[in-house]
Design brief:
- The protein has about 500 residues and is of the alpha/beta class.
- Helix content is about 60%, strand content about 5%.
- It contains 21 helices and five strands.
- A five-stranded mixed β-sheet has the order 2-1-3-5-4, sandwiched between helices.
- Helix 6 packs parallel to helix 16 and helix 12 packs across helix 13.
Length: about 500
């Protein structure tokens, strides 16, 4: 009787061989499906009104010229590249909600395709799995329709990571110029990306030694960014003052939020970590048993280092956030490409052990993306912190004067001219400019006096964030809410109490 379970020439189970062949056919199909899901999820996701951070983008984008845009960008602590892009695009498409969000959507749609290009450091399956995960990744979906820098940051960080892989695998001046150029653009999109790019640079020097030193002219690309940072430093120092810190100190209990941000669920993150740990242990045991040690290829080293650098950068950010209030989840975006590269390696190893199991791993990401798109809800913090609805209410009443209050501690560090432009952005955009009076710090007496003296066609917008313990938060609700001469309404998802975040809008009768 003939045994058909094994191939004659290698002892490889026929089922395994057929599974590998099936996966080779199905993987590109799965990637196409993942890209389609990702594209649909990015486009159909509910965007809602512009929330306050997006209004900040609008303030800079609305400036009449390049110099005015740069001057306004210098008054904000964020890096300038996205603002420059938003300003240029607004000159073509205008300042409506969809126009302001278009650059982010374009960057989010582009991101997964960046890693699909041929790369000497990655094989076909690794590239396809990495692209599929980037198409379905939580950060790429959640920032795709937000007029902030994070979708662009993810795209540039992905390009920088791909360039780093190529550079470490085969150092040349051309590849070094590409990596430093993309890395500089990434840092100019978000300054904390310097942690990832800096660690990549140190790893490049450590791994490639003299070959890396011979590419030193590529460093000259960084000089314009250094010049801008020097110019921007006084603003950064002002916002870095602990008195204006709005972050919580990072604690171990927040790790579940980190895992959910990176992988969609804590369980999927734990599964990935467990399999990665088993892979490492198996590799160590195999290395000990091997009589003749084998050296990894430059490509394999480059891939491993890219993953380790991203994990180390994330750990540094979390550690710094534990020491001083300086961290929020979206700051991990520059680390996402490298971490998801590690997840792609895990999926590839799973399929090597059990054919098609890597596709199941990708399927789990896809299910989370579909659930996210089907839910279609605007995150609570965006509903709590949007003044677009308040501005519409006051515009409909024909107000001419507006008091603007934001009891977040960072509001005290904001340049008063920027704060007035922020409070009046939606009025200005609608062609109905108003006189805006801002109340920063703890000057509640001045606000009460303004409320008492205000005449008809006056309005008040107060953004309330009680959990941040800003200097004015204890005085919420404002005196206008208790004055029969004023009529007040509350928006936000948190309810109407003093301890619930939201926006109160008051109109003088």
């Amino acid at each position: 009787m003939t045994d058909t379970t094994f191939d004659k020439d290698g002892g490889v189970p026929r089922a395994t061989r057929l599974g590998v062949q099936a996966e080779r056919i199905l993987l590109p199909v799965a990637v196409v499906v993942a890209l389609a899901i990702g594209i649909v999820a990015r486009i159909v996701g509910e965007a809602g009104p512009l929330w306050i951070d997006e209004a900040v983008t609008g303030v800079v984008a609305a400036q009449p010229g390049l110099r005015a845009m740069a001057e306004m960008a210098l008054q904000d602590p964020n890096a300038p590249l996205f603002y420059a892009l938003a300003h240029a695009w607004a000159g073509v498409a205008g300042l409506d909600d969809a126009a302001l969000r278009t650059p982010s959507l374009a960057a989010a749609l582009l991101t997964p395709f960046i890693v699909l290009l041929p790369n000497p450091a990655l094989d076909r399956n690794q590239r396809l799995l990495w692209g599929a995960l980037l198409a379905l990744a939580w950060p790429s979906l959640m920032f795709a329709q937000e007029a902030r820098s994070y979708a662009l940051l993810l795209a540039l960080a992905t390009g920088t990571t791909v360039a780093f892989l190529r550079l470490v695998a085969a150092p040349t001046l051309g590849r070094a110029l590409l990596w430093t150029s993309l890395g500089t653009l990434t840092v100019l999109t978000h300054y904390l990306a310097a942690v990832v790019v800096g660690l990549q640079g140190l790893a490049y020097l450590a791994l490639c030694g003299r070959r890396a030193l011979r590419t030193w002219p590529a460093v000259l690309v960084v000089l314009p960014a250094v010049a801008w940072l020097t110019w921007h430093w006084p603003t950064l120092a002002r916002f870095a003052d602990p008195a204006h810190a709005w972050y919580q100190l990072f604690e171990l209990r927040h790790m579940s939020a980190v895992a959910t941000f990176l992988f969609g669920t804590v369980e999927l993150a734990a599964w990935t970590l467990a399999i990665a740990t088993l892979m490492l242990l198996r590799g160590l045991v195999a290395g000990v048993k091997r009589r003749v040690p084998s050296s990894p290829t430059p490509a394999a080293v480059a891939v491993a280092v890219a993953v380790v650098v991203s994990v180390a950068a994330a750990a540094l950010m979390l550690g710094l956030g534990a020491l001083r209030p300086s961290f929020t989840l979206r700051y991990l975006v520059p680390c996402v490409p490298g971490i998801l590269l590690g997840a792609a390696l895990v999926a590839a190893e799973m399929s090597r052990r059990v054919p098609a199991s890597g596709l199941v791993y990708v399927l789990l990401f896809g299910m989370l993306a579909v659930r996210w798109a089907a839910d279609g809800s605007v995150p609570t913090y965006k509903r709590d912190l949007e003044t677009q609805s308040s501005s519409r209410t006051l515009m409909a009443a024909g107000v001419e004067r507006v008091a603007f209050v934001w009891d977040n501690p960072l509001f005290g560090a904001m340049d008063p001219r920027f704060a007035r432009a922020l409070g009046g952005f939606f009025f200005h955009r609608a062609g109905m400019p108003v006189a805006v009076e801002v109340f920063q710090g703890a000057d509640i007496a001045r606000l009460d006096a303004w409320t008492t003296a205000a005449g008809p066609r006056s309005g008040l917008i107060w953004i309330h964030e009680p959990e941040l313990n800003g200097p004015l938060a204890a005085h919420f609700p404002p005196a206008a809410a208790r004055d029969p001469a004023w009529r007040c309404t509350r928006t936000g998802a948190g309810g109407a109490g003093r301890d619930a975040p939201g926006v109160i809008t008051c109109l003088r009768n």
